[in-house]
Each structure stands twice: as structure tokens, then as C-alpha cells.
Specification:
Elements: H1 2-42, H2 48-52, H3 65-95, H4 101-114, H5 118-132, H6 139-163, H7 167-175, H8 180-209, H9 212-217, H10 235-245, H11 249-284
Length: 285
Amino acid sequence: MKSNSSQIARVIHIIATILIWSVAVIVIGVLIAIMVFILIKGLPHVTWSFLTEIPRNMGKEGGISSAIVGTLLLTVVAVLIALPFGIGTAYYLAEYTRGGIIPRIIRFGAESLAGIPSIVYGLFGFIFFVVTLDLGWSILAGGLTMALMILPTVIRTSEEAILSVPKIYREVSFSLGATKWQTIRLAVTPSAIRGIANGVILSVGRCVAETAAVMLTAGSALRMASSLFSPTRTMAVHFYMLATEGTSMENAYGTAAILIILIFLINVVANMLVDRFVSKRTVNR
């Protein structure tokens, strides 16, 4: 009986392994196929003038320089606003609370906000930031709206990263006479930085790829933004408008190719910076 049970368990294990690997290969294959298709269609249209010129004639002519700048500015504003609040909230929940009604409310709010469609954020941003606060369609209004969108992601991923740090690190730090802040800064943060960075990278990717909320708050102006109060058009919005209106599919594919390359570069650079930080902290120890 035992041998039969072990054989059945072994067969089930083999089948489960095959299914898991099959699903993983299919998902990766679909992702690679999409990226290759867009790059093949878009890269032939990517030239120096395409990268440096401002769109003209509703995007039929010119390039995407203003869209690139608008995308970067909007993302920077959103991340700079969301990170202090998100990471600070995560440390408060993970290190300074031991249950209670307030932490439960914060976690429930973050989880609820994470499931709200982006168009709802866009409508809220339009009513509150654009109209009520009279910011108009601008980079600042779009950045504030995107900060609200990515805040739940930053909170939850950062909290999980902090909670994953073994308790022994804190106990050893306290036993050596370190304060709470020193323990968090020198013992907890270096071990949690990878998880926190992953949350930030996910948030940046969402900012770069968002369309609905950006159109309602930052606008879709083709001209180069001159300040945070100027309207702008991100690359995702530019691609969406070119593709849906059939204005110029060549420029649409070119914009999509640059968008994929930009997201890839952001991920690579962010991971390199995190690896360098972690290795430096390890050497200093």
C-alpha cells in the first residue's frame, strides 16, 4: 500500500510539475511574441528625427519628443509624491503597530484602492485636481492622480518586504544597543530593499503605461511642456490616440516600441542600482 501511495504521489508530482512549467512557458512565449511583434513593426520607423521632433498634424508627422518628456515628468512627479507616503506607511504598519483598528483600516483601504479601475481615478482627478483645485489639465494634476493610483501598490509591496525580514535581525540589533530607528535603517532596510524596489518598479511601469487617468488629468497636448502646470501627452496616450483613430499606424508602432524599450531600461537600471546598494551594504558589514 505504501509503495502504491508513493508511486501515485510521484506521478501527481510529475504531472503538476509539467503543468506548471507548461503554463510558465506559454506565458513567457506570449509575452516574447507580443514584444517581438511590436519591435519588428516599430523599430524600422524609429529614427533620430522621430525621437527629437515634436508631433505635428495630430501625430501624422514629426516625432514623439514631447511625449517622451511628458511621460518622464509625469512619472517622476507621481513617484516622488507616492514613495514617501507609501514607504512611510509600510514602515508604520510593519514596525510601529501590533494590530488594532487603525492598521486594519489602512490595510483595508489600501487593498480596496488597489482594485479600483483607473478610469475612476481619472474621474476623481479631473473633478478634484483639474476642476476643484483649478490646476487644469497639467503634469501636476496627472502626477497627483497617478500618485494616488500607485500608492496602494507601494504600501502593500513595501510592507510585505519589511515583514519578510527575519526577526532575529531586529533582536540582534537591539541587543547591541541600537535604537528603533537605527535598527530600521541599518538592519531592516538593507534586507527589504529588493522587495521595496520591486514595488517601486511596478508602480513606475503603471505610470508609464497608463492612458485613461492621464487623458482626463494631464490632457493630450502635442506641444512640449514648459512647466508642471502645462498639459502634456504621454507616450501611452499618444500610441492610444494614433492607433484608435488610425492617424498613423507607423508612428503608433514606433511609439509602442520606444515605450517597451523605456520600460525595459527602467527595470534594468533600477535592478542595477539595487544590486549595487545591496553589495555595498554587504561589503561595509
